[in-house]
């Protein structure tokens, strides 16, 4: 696998605010985030007997709090050391550690369910990340990304990031539902269910053996 030089990546997660959507008290924002996690739960109901799960790129661990209510034996990881500490504070009962999505610490086929929620759009090498996730996953992946071009359109409607045509700072990649499914099926496995809570796409995929 290609060795990633983290010092040369365009992605700068240590400078981004990943907690804003979880701490925003605006009714609409809270409604959208609740719909997002309701969709994740719907996807989880489509599979049975998952005994281990791992969230990659958990940030401050606010999404981890939600996932921990849905599934047992959850662990989580984050690349930015400062965010790892915050994630541990927010989830004191969970094993949370530092790792890069390009160099995961788990053994091959050791995790039944991997979560990658609102991470892929920030990565310089999304295909390499999915290849590494496939290595550690035993069976399933739930991945969520902003749905484009809807995401940028909604940003522009609220007069955000107009100079970059609504692109959120830090978003290096942009996927429609169709293009996300194509990417996941190319690099991980068969997409078996899709949820489309505005303004995201979330897919459940089963690992291929090839």
Explain what you see.
This protein has a single domain, classed as Vaccinia Virus protein VP39 (Rossmann fold), CATH 3.40.50. 33% of the residues lie in helices and 21% in strands. It has 7 helices and 7 strands, in the order H-H-E-H-E-H-E-E-H-E-H-H-E-E. The two termini are 16 Å apart. The mean pLDDT is 90.
Throw out a few tags for this protein.
single chain, about 210 residues, alpha/beta, Rossmann fold
Spatial gap, N to C terminus: 16 Å
Question: How much of the polypeptide forms β-strand, as a percent range?
Answer: 15-25%
The number of distinct structural domains comes to: 1
Give the helix proportion (percent range): 25-40%
- One letter per element, helices H and strands E, the order comes to HHEHEHEEHEHHEE
Categorize the overall geometry.
Answer: globular
In brief, what are we looking at here?
By secondary structure, the protein is an alpha/beta fold. Helices cover 33% and strands 21% of the residues. Strands 3-2-1-4-5-7-6 form a seven-stranded mixed beta sheet, sandwiched between helices.
């Amino acid at each position: 696998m290609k060795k990633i030089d983290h010092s040369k990546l365009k992605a700068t997660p240590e400078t981004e605010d990943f907690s804003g959507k979880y701490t925003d008290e605006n009714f609409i924002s809270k409604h959208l985030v609740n719909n997002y996690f309701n969709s994740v739960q719907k996807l989880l109901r489509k599979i049975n007997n998952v005994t281990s799960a791992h969230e990659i790129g958990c940030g401050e661990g606010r999404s981890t709090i939600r996932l921990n209510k849905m599934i047992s034996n959850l662990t989580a990881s984050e690349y930015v050391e400062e965010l790892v500490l915050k994630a541990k504070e927010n989830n004191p009962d969970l094993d949370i550690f530092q790792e890069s999505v390009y160099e995961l610490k788990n053994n091959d086929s050791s995790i039944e369910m991997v979560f990658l929620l609102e991470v892929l759009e920030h990565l310089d090498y999304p295909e390499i990340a999915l290849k590494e996730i496939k290595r550690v996953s035993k069976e399933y992946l739930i991945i969520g990304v902003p749905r484009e071009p809807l995401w940028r359109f909604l940003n522009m409607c609220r007069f955000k990031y107009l100079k970059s045509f609504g692109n959120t700072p830090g978003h290096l990649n942009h996927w429609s539902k169709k293009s996300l499914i194509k990417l996941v099926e190319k690099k991980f496995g068969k997409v078996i269910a899709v949820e489309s809570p505005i303004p995201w796409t979330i897919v459940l995929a089963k690992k291929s053996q090839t």
